[in-house]
Write a structure and sequence with these properties.
The chain has a domain at about 10-130 and about 195-225. About 40% of the residues lie in helices and about 20% in strands. It contains nine helices and 14 strands. A four-stranded antiparallel β-sheet has the order 4-7-6-5. It has a four-stranded antiparallel β-sheet with strand order 8-11-10-9. It is globular, with a radius of gyration of 17 Å.
Amino acid sequence: MRRNAGSAGGRSFVRGIFESPRSTGGTRRIGILLILIVLAMSRGWSEAKQTGCEQARRTNHWCRAGNVGYVAGLEIRSRFLYEVLDAHGHTIVPQAVQCDVCREALKSHGYCPAHRMGYVGGRAYMTPLTYYLARGRRVDPASITCPICRKNLQGIGWCERDRVGIVGTTALDDRQEFEELTKAYQILVAAIQMSSTCERCSGAMVADGYCAIHRIKFKDGVPVPGFGGVSP
């Protein structure tokens, strides 16, 4: 399978760390992902400039003061997992996109299931969670008066009265999109728990990747049956 976003290289590095040696179609995607992680860490990407962490929590940034990151209101202690999530997406070269579905998604702010990559505002998002967060709109907690919506600000939930779903400080009005976001949110919850045991597994969980340490391939947040490997 041919990949899209105008990046190249790093595939041998990724194959040994994050991608299955049996995989063919996903290698370039994971290569792009790991390159982004390395660049992000070296440049201090997504750092919250505020001294406290509340602003970082509201804007899905990394809080340097607390050495903690936030995505969808969830606290992430693993810097590796935070960077894998690619919370704010990344710029791409449209002319380098070869997949027809991805080209159309670029125009319509859509999603390519084959490459598991979404596009919003000309930026590419490597995980379903961050794609749907980008599709949403920011809300000011102080402006929320509905008791159900205020409760949802503390986690995730749908308000039938206002026909809106809220996670963290992001709102989605489309119920189907919110259901997809909810699935991705639950995978992240499990990945955060996993990160205390194996960061590579946690990253693979959110990116449908491979943990070379435990030789486990993940799909939709769970190990692929019959793939082998050992439990972390």
